[in-house]
Design goal:
InterPro entries: Methyltransf_25, SAM-dependent_MTases_sf. By secondary structure, the chain is α/β, with parallel strands linked by helices. It is built from seven helices and eleven strands. Helix 2 packs parallel to helix 5. It is globular and about 60 Å long.
Length: 247
């Protein structure tokens, strides 16, 4: 399935979980704090803005935010929280769609660059970020680290989260560098609901090369939005890339 088919009206209705999961204050607030500092006095552009999980509170901090989003139903959900004048959104894909204006910050959170399923599209995403930024502008990516070390020979899946009523696992195609995330939601009935999304996983070093091809340099990399050290055991990272400043 294409991404615009996956993120349909049903997915948009179920996406927001106020106060819990990725909407929990301890998850969301550090991301908004960091992005607000990086944006400074300029404007921010969010690739794959979705329902505005990050954009709405960031705009509430006084940062002008524009979004690019492939899914109209996700934007419709965003419009229940902020109008077009507050957070303008351009419908299109994050690899090629151009938003008007110049920005000090472009950001792409919660693993969304992996929704682009080819290396070429991911490289174009970096180039698209660069064309929106002025000298010294930053591109921030939050991305998970592929957990291939947990795959013994002959096993193609890892369970990465399990709690009451929810199990999440990833299946890997290591030949194509693809993974599919499977999210199972269930209750006391005999049936479960399944949501799946395909991804192309990217190693941090490969991400750095993509950045270099677009003219960026790696400014910092941490294990989370709070600035914890990135180590060999980190399961995700927040990487900040920067264009060279004016001569």
């Amino acid at each position: 399935m294409e991404q615009k088919e996956i993120w349909d009206a049903d997915a948009a209705r179920r996406y927001d979980t106020p106060g819990t999961g990725m909407f929990a204050p301890e998850v969301l607030d550090p991301a908004v704090d960091r992005l607000a500092r990086l944006a400074g006095e300029g404007a921010a552009l969010e690739f794959a803005i979705g329902t505005g999980r990050v954009a709405v509170p960031l705009a509430g901090r006084g940062v002008p935010v524009t979004g690019i989003e492939l899914s109209p139903p996700m934007v419709e959900q965003l419009r229940t929280k902020a109008d077009e004048a507050t957070i303008p959104v351009i419908i299109g894909d994050m690899a090629t769609t151009v938003a008007p204006g110049e920005y000090t910050l472009v950001y792409l959170v919660f693993n969304t660059i992996s929704n682009l399923l080819t290396q070429a599209e991911q490289v174009e995403c970096f180039r698209n970020a660069a064309r929106h930024l002025g000298p010294g502008g930053r591109f921030v990516i939050e991305l998970w680290v592929p957990e291939l070390r947990r795959l013994p020979p002959g096993q193609a899946a890892t369970v990465w989260h399990s709690e009451s009523g929810y199990i999440a696992l990833d299946t890997y195609d290591v030949l194509r560098q693809h993974a599919v995330s499977h999210h199972f939601h269930f209750d006391d009935s005999r049936e479960a609901k399944l949501f799946r999304s395909p991804h192309r996983y990217i190693w941090p070093t490969e991400l750095d090369l993509m950045a270099q091809l677009a003219g960026f340099e790696l400014e910092s990399r941490h294990a989370d939005w709070d600035g914890a050290a990135f180590t060999a055991e980190s399961r995700s990272h927040v990487s900040v890339y920067r264009l060279p400043p004016s001569p």
